[in-house]
Amino acid sequence: MLIVVSNREPYLHRTAEDGSVVAEPTTGGVAVALDALMRDRGGTWIAHGSGDSDQLVCDSSDRVRVPPDAPAYDLHRLWLTPDEEARYYSGFSNEGLWPLCHMVHVKPVFRAEDWEAYCHVNRRFAETVAADLLDATTPVFIQDYHLALVASELRKLKPAARIAIFWHIPWPDPDRLRMCPWRRAILEGLLANNLVAFQVERDRRNFLAAIREEFGLEAKNGTISLGGRESSVIAVPIGVDFDRISKTSRDPRLLVEKDRLRRDLRVATPVVGVGVDRLDYTKGIPERLDAIDRLLTETPGLASQLLFVQIGVPSRSKIESYAALEREIDERVAAINARHGRGPADGPIRYRKGSLKLRRLVALYQLADFCIVSSLHDGMNLVAKEFVAARHDEQGVLVLSELTGAAQELKDAVIINPYDAQGFTDALRRAISMPPDERRERMRRLRRVVAGQDVFAWASQILENLERVRGRRLWSGRVA
Ligand code: F6P
Fold it and tell me: In a designed cystine with 87, which of 103, 114, 134, 327 is the match (CB 3.0 to 4.6 A)?
């Protein structure tokens, strides 16, 4: 039994054109990874109900059993007013914390009204957890930057709760963190968790440096003591549900799906590349399109041999920087297709907006000779790991930005720097012309890494650490 808390829900319900209510999985690494865990462990997942028909399917206590096809756990939905959503989610979380934590040259915006809403919504999440937490030994596992204050609020209601938070995105260095007027409250909120976990050592180090700068506190064996409470700080990279993706990739029905996809995307070239991203300015999509453009310009004849499929999942579109990115990508794709193909919609780039169901996604990964992940900064990037998990044929080349957390584990990818336009282009050329033996050898090693640190290993490491931390606290409490 486990309580998971996140802003994004794993499934939303919406009313289709024929009037029926349909359930859809949401996109984004957090939802997909945690759904696998909850299917396995059961329990309650508390999240913002954001589907237009979410309320219709919930019982009187705002719950619905999910996944819809094989119910395994409770989704407890919390409702936000449009104003709360605008200020807490779009405002403080995504116009403030998101650009603060990612080095992408987008200026963070911090408004006092957004901060107030953030505090208020975090309190509401904490109250919802407290109502569900009937047994104090049930672990509470909070996700990400939207919910930095939930632990401190929950402690007021349930002092003995066992709480961990996983920070899925990068943690900024102390100089950058100083841009946030409310950084001390955020750090205190995080230290109310028994366990604070990051993706990679670099983030953990930056967090401990911030604690030193702001409170003059040093960690002892990775543990910080503040106000009589101990908080352990660790780094554990998140993974994907390797077995599920791998199984899907071997399913005989995948052949039909691949044929359908080839037809839908009009794939007729010997070389196919793929990119799958939320439409976010951290993902380096314009830089990727530029590298492809340059490759086609430098290599006469390649335009008729190469198709690059870009899947873009619209995200946070109410925020101007995201809307501007969507426009920029539309323009670049049209320009490249006009330059190297027969027109804006018929050239070497096929751009499709929207998310894909698992089987179609795996089919797409398998159609591809290479996959590009070119983030300018990324906590982990699970697309890189999904691509590897989907390649049981040990084919396909992963082209991966060195500015992702994933690059610290996936050393056998072709590593690129998205800021180095020529280097990126040369790396694409290398990926396309890599000898089959080298391709196979690299993919084999990559698969070993991705299988070895899957989402279940990640969750176990965190929950076992939470258990250990709690043991230590009880013991020291008795001595005191
Ligand atoms: O992985 C980072 C993250 O912000 C998650 O917390 C989030 O669910 C996902 O990206 C998708 O973003 P959003 O929930 O804003 O659509």
Answer: 114
Ligand 1 geometric centre to CA of 113 (Å) = 22
Supply the pTM of this predicted model. 0.96
Residue of 251, 258, 283, 253 lying closest to 272 (CA atoms):
258
3-class SS letters over 126-141: HHHHHHHCCCCCCEEE
Pocket of ligand 1 (CB under 6 A): 8, 28-31, 144, 168-169, 278, 315-316
Beta strand 195-198 with 229-235 is parallel
Share of the chain above pLDDT 70, in %: 98
- d(CA 354, ligand 1 centre) in Å: 15
Of 380, 431, 438, 440, the residue nearest 410 (C-alpha): 380
Q: 21-25 and 11-15 as β-strands: parallel, antiparallel, unpaired?
A: antiparallel
Main-chain dihedrals φ then ψ at residue 2, nearest 5 degrees: -150, 145
Token pair listed for 473:
């606290």
How close is the Cα of 441 to the center of ligand 1, in Å?
33
